[in-house]
Amino acid sequence: MSGIEKDTESLTEIAKRNQNFLRKYQSAAPTLTKSRSKSALMKVTPDISIDSTSLQFIISNIDIDEPFNQYDKIDDLITKLKHKEALNKIPFTVLDEFVKKVRKIIPKYSIIEYTKNYKSEAKALIKILEPSKTYLNLISTKIVDQRLIVDELLEKILKTTQSALDKLIIPLAHYPNKENFKILESKKIKRCMASLCGVIEYFSTLISKKCFQEYLVISLAELLIKTLFAEGAEILHLTCSYALASIVHSYNKMTVQVINEIINNLLVLTNDPNLAIGTKSKKVHCREYTVAEGVEIKFSTFMVISVLQNFSSLSEALRLDGKVNLKLVNKQIQETLGLSQHFVNEVCERAFKVKSESQEYRTFLDCFILDLLKLIFRPEFPLAFQVLNLVIIKIFGALKAFSAIIRHYAIDEMSLIASSLKQTIHEIKKLPIVPQNITKVSMTNHPSDNLMASLCICKEGWSDEKCDMIQCEECWKWFHLDCVGLNLEKYSDNTWFCDDCRLFQYLQHISIQEVNFNEDEIFALPLEIISVSIQFQRVYQELIINYLISNGGRMEESSRSLWLAHWLSEKEDQNLVHLWQTPSKSPNLPRLSEKGTIKLLRQYLLAFDLGLTYLHTQHRIISLLTAAQPLTRAKAIKSLSAIVSADPECLLEDIIEAAVTERLNDTSIAVREATVELIGKFITYKSEFSDSYFIALMERLTDKGPSVRRRVIRILKDIISNDPENERRIGIYCEVIKRINDDSEGIRDAVVCLFEEVWFSAKTEKFFVSFLQTIKVLKIKEPIIMLFKAILEKDQKYKGALERITQTATEQLIASNLLGNSILCAKLIEIVSMTAPELLVDQITTLHQFLTASQSTPEESELLTSICIVIGQSSEHLNSLNVAKIKRIENQLITLVYTQSSSVVTQAINALCKIVRLCSRNHSIITSLITKCFTLLKGQAKIISNDKNNLSSVFRALLALGLCIKYYESSIYNEFSLEEGVDFKTSIFDVYQKFSLMEDESIRERALDSLSLTWVRFPELIIKSDSLIKKAWQVANTANKKIKLLQMFYEFMRHCNEAIKEGSDEDKGNVVSVIFGYLDNILECTKNEKPDVRESAAEVLKLIFIQGTINASKFVSVLFSMLGDESLIVREAAYFCVEKGFIKSPDLITINMQSSLKEAFEFQSKILKQRDLKESYYSKVYGLIKGKKSVRNKMLNTILHSLEPNDPDFTEYLCEMISLFVYSTMEEICLILQYINGKIQASAFRLLRIIKVRKNNKETLKRDYIIECVLQIQLIILKNHLILAYQIKSFDEIQDKPVQKNEEATLFQEEYEEFKCYNKIQEIKDDDLIKFKYKFKQCLKSQNLEDGPMKKRTRKQTEGEVTTKQIISI
């Protein structure tokens, strides 16, 4: 209710407060009484006597022969009279006098010679343009005396304007250099362009009245377009754009020509003479056009939309009787969209070509799409969202382009559009327009009193910088004046309501119907918002039109016509027809603010048109996640990431969650990395995200791609940093620690950085608790030891942190009454001792008291083992301890040897040997222990077979004796004898041999196991043990037995190198011969079905190879099989041997290559029972040897000559192997392709066509007719794969030039899997093959499939050829 209609006495408290609040911003103004204010609104006849006298006086003073500079005053007076609608009150004689003088002045100055003397030419033009501008202003009035319009004069002015643009402005402003810029900045040129602006402005009014012949308008349009694309003519751009829009509006037939001219000139926008030739950093050089505050677009976009939009008109569809011709309305909208389609098609077709100039069009299209996204929710630009839809359709088409550049560009644009729409959808979900629900806030006297009350629609509240706010009378919320479109100078209402409250009050009286939805309908917005939008659809439409009419402006008519035509084309509505006819806004409807209207329009469009657009775009992006090309899938994931960035909650949608989870297992590393990055950005956004994605993310820690693993570790680090008390943190620590032994240095560094920040930079108590919990869950200590060593290697300052937690652990160990906690503390100290033993010297005096056993339980044994390890590791730093303490520790350790289990005995003897050797030097302790063990074994050897009561003592003595010999220095045994007249080694072997020959299997195994401990110190004993070992291999019928034997050899090979050096050459030769005797047993284990056995055998072979005791050529075929093993340990060991062998002998890998291939194939098919070579190291080996040309060619030749289509399984295996190789020169590929060409009898192209038919229509060819195709299919796909992957055009000539692998390379594997799944390959030989070939040729003829690639033909193609082309393009 306005203040004119409501007395100030009846004002509410809020209204009074609003007035008081605004008064400090307003200047004082005289207050009108109520009656006087009403009279002020009455329409009266304007007083024009003063203006008329002034106009008459100035016109009479115009002297044709003298310069006249008061045209601006005449122009202002005419404009003033036009606004008063009183120009027709001026006597005709006055106006006629002016026209007559202008008719004489213009011809007088119209002869201008354009000689590039720009300033003088501008001066001469001003003399013509100034009177011309005034004259055009006069005759552009709605109602004008026709006698004032002189066609000859109009044509003269038009030609002068065209000459000025063509010969002065365009040459100066097109690609202006420094000199031209200086000229353009001069006063005369600027004044000339200002005059041109006025002339063109008035021309646009006359053009809309169709005052000119079409040929004149065509030439003007061409010049206007050139001016619009002239960088230095920015002053003229807006006027020229409006004039061009008027031309399109009035001369519809010229629209296509205008659009084509615009398209042809688009390249000018991206041309920068200062850029280097061929540069890719292109951008649109164009001024910004301000649509509204904070909304700027490129002027080129405004020009295009303005021209296209002005094709539509309200008046065209109005009949003489005032009714609307709905057929014309529909025709008009279709033609407008057709022109828009033409523009979009032309731009996109040029942008989606792989040519250098296409980059310019893509640059323009980038900006164009960005600008459309800014305009789609502006009521003044109804064509924007429809043009955007047309662009999206073309982008969808570009996804099928052959060029990866175009496909990726299309995906980027889709991503941009989808993310922008998703962002808007997210905002609407948070703050929808739901007219039935108005949320009130607490009443406040000032916006600073309550933050929620002052939260404006701009999402900002009260601030000192932006403090001009007004309070809504209904909901009591505060709003910024700018945001609700209030002008202080024009504000007069005593009460004010916000947009939501206005709608609420109005819609309370509107009857609505319930909306029903189908279950299968999908919407971009929640159903509640969709329902409201449908219920109030008509009201929303009226509000949009109301805003346009109230706002006015140049684009009001075309905007209104397009909105109404769009709505009428969907449903005939008399209310919409009325809105077409009416020239004024509806008085019953509230006028919403600009931001309120935009908010309403956003919700309206996303509930209907743009909501479906978003859903289609999202569907396309998700469908691209299963594209054949890895780079395309990676691009699609990044596009999906952009959508998720706009609204992270969409990650919980079923379709997106399923798509993202699936891509975590993608075959491409790039795709998996992009997916991990996507999850990592938002996994901490909501707890639900962690539940959905955490497990899948953790699985990627073992990904074969280093970049993926590194990305996962960074994400996990962010999770812990953001939430140090995260419930999953211990699980994260355990999994990340395992990556410390990763083969990638970058991964290891990432692990170190994580724990350096999370553990070592934290407080001691937090570090201790996390460390303890990690030990409890992890259960293995090696990764933690490697981690701590890496951290200390990086910075020694962290020793202090380790020392502090060790001290804390010791205190906890003493104080704890729970054995479980004591074990964990002991494990912690054990890990520190193996990392930095010097830190434990002070703790040993406390820890050794725990060496006393009391319970004899497995848990206590575990505790004792850890303490023994700690003492053994710290022994070299215990010299500072007194003799008594050392003695006490020695006695405690000996007691453990006599009383505890084998695990404790092993560590106790190890610690005891170190203490004696490094501290006490009391060798008698060790010799005494050896003597006691030997005596016991000597005495029990005769009776143990009959009496097994002392079996445990015998086992302990066997183990202790072997451990003492292994861990203590050999120098004490030189003069030490266990039996008179028998040397020490012989005595030891004899006693072990007696137990190794006993019938009891457990005794034999224990004896041989303990005997193997002595090999480390006395390698010659392995020669004496030959018969015992052979017997053990013979009875090793289980995996565990074989692993135990392999571990014996591993321990021996790992420690015996130094011992062999100390012995004679004869001993060394004997040891080598013994190892060689067991090589067959070890090699046999590499083909065992159990991975553990193969891994143990691989480790032994690796040690044998390192020591160089046996020539690697003896087992090269086994190594070749191991390269394809499913176990990473086996593959790494095999590659290590091949790599070292290649350095010594480059021909190593090609020795007996053919038999190696067969053996590897047999291993894959019979042992591994699969042929997947993706994880194999064959490509790695090829990369190693391809630098040696002769070796490389020998390897390729051997593989190629082994290809035999009649042995399809082996051929399949070899083809897959070749496909995994990474080639770097054309020679390699040509070698393969030339061989394949001679091998396949039917042409590859023909067979590929048949494959296409078979894949898409299984009934086209019978199974019998495709057998040969299936037999040779590996060769065909391999050849096609190589050609596509390395972009080979001709391979007739072998040229040694580099090639680059493109993304099509991975297509081979995917196609290959399809064929394997579809068809079981069968073998056809002899007569059956001959019969088949005949049938096959007949089939080819019937299918009209010709030999060789398709070539351009001059004759008309047959129906069969057309069908073939369609098949190929599938």
Automatic annotation (TrEMBL):
Chain positions covered by the region annotation Disordered: 1350-1370
Domain PHD-type: 453-504
Pfam families: Nipped-B_C, PDS5, PHD
Localization in the cell: Nucleus
Gene Ontology MF annotations: chromatin binding; cohesin loader activity; zinc ion binding
An annotated GO cellular component: Scc2-Scc4 cohesin loading complex
Alphabetically ordered keywords of this record: Cell cycle, Metal-binding, Nucleus, Repeat, Zinc, Zinc-finger
GO biological process, one term: establishment of mitotic sister chromatid cohesion
Bias kind Polar residues: ranges: 1360-1370
Gene3D superfamilies: Leucine-rich Repeat Variant (1.25.10.10), Zinc/RING finger domain, C3HC4 (zinc finger) (3.30.40.10)
Family the UniProt entry places it in: Belongs to the SCC2/Nipped-B family.
Protein's recorded name: Sister chromatid cohesion protein
